Amino acid sequence: MGASMAETASVTLVTGVSGFVGSAVARALAARGVAVRGLVRGSSPRTNLADFRGELVDADLRDAAAVQRAMAGVQHVYHVAADYRLWAPDPEDIVRNNLSTTRNVMEAALAAGVERVVYTSSVATLVPRDQGAADETRPATPAQAVGAYKRSKVVAERLVEGMVAERGLPAVIVLPSTPIGPRDVRPTPTGRVIVEAASGKMPAFVDSGLNLVHVDDVALGHLQAMAAGRIGERYVLGGTDVMLGTMLADIAGIVGRRPPTVRIPRAPLFPLAWINEQIARRTGGDPFLTLDSLRMAKYRMFFCSDKARRELGYDPRPYRAALVDAIDWFARAGMLR
Questions:
Q1: 283-300 pLDDT, tens digit each
Q2: pLDDT, mean of residues 265-273
Q3: Taking the CA atoms of the chain, what radius of gyration do you get in angstroms?
Q4: Please, are residues 147 and 159 in contact by the beta-carbon 8 Å criterion?
């Protein structure tokens, strides 16, 4: 634990500091000698905070007053925290959480006169292309977003853009694609796929595609956006476009298993997804297969990071290195069966 808020000047605030991306951002900052203040909710897992170098503040981002107090003496803000669930018993709870917490952080940043903000949005706010990769020129409307999580990120991103244009919020917006790598504690939905596949629990797959990137490259992209990003601009922080079947085959090769070869259509899986969601409602767990995930699988979620490469110097490593790091961390954490 570092100095108190009253004693620390010109610190950098990171929200969601116990999370997958937030902890990576905090590590990247600390490695560069930046004084970091991390916001963490009391109920959040503390695994990623074991070697945290900085000041920790317990605060619920839904509490506007607590966020304002945490902003004292802050120069730079990374708002990384998000309710990252692809399913919830009440889907609108995801939308309410991501919109209200983003509003609280941005209002507090304006009131405190912070110098610069990097807001972590998502490629979920973009409309995918039928062919090829989508970029920042394809913003989605809330109606175009598939599922509550994507809709929540669209409305939160539009809120930030509006505050930049109308109130002078000094914010840069970054849009990570699908981060993978070490310290995926919960894990994320994609992390769950890696764990299941590496454990030999995914004998078949749907024909879909996604963009995978090492979480530490996403973190570095945040720092590059803070240093060189243009206020009000959006930057995709992606990596490699990969078909799901290729990803699963690569996982199998890394762990020494036989890769799955059976492709199954989405339509027969919808009843199974519905059953999974009903079981989750009764047990309080998280369904592995959801209706929204099947709807998303209709699209190949491929994205282009050329703008970030050109303007920020962003240069992610090959995605297979991220897979190796993710599998190695899951193995050491005892999560592979």
A1: 767 767 676 666 666 677
A2: 68
A3: 19
A4: no
For the chain, how many structural domains are there in total? 1
Residue 275 lies in a domain: no
Q: What global pTM score does this model have?
A: 0.90
> Which residue carries 């109606």 as its tokens?
143
- Residue linked to tokens 């024909």: 207
Half-sphere exposure of 4 (CA within 13 A, CB side): 2
Spatial distance between the Cα atoms of 166 and 164, rounded to a whole number of angstroms: 6
Alpha carbons 183 and 186: distance in angstroms, whole number: 9
**CATH (domain of 147):** 3.40.50.720
Residue given tokens 């600390």 in the structure block: 30
Number of neighbours of residue 298 by Cβ within 10 angstroms: 12
In angstroms, the CA 46 to CA 57 distance is 13
pLDDT tens digit sequence for 218-244: 999 999 999 999 999 999 999 999 999
Is residue 18 domain-resident? yes
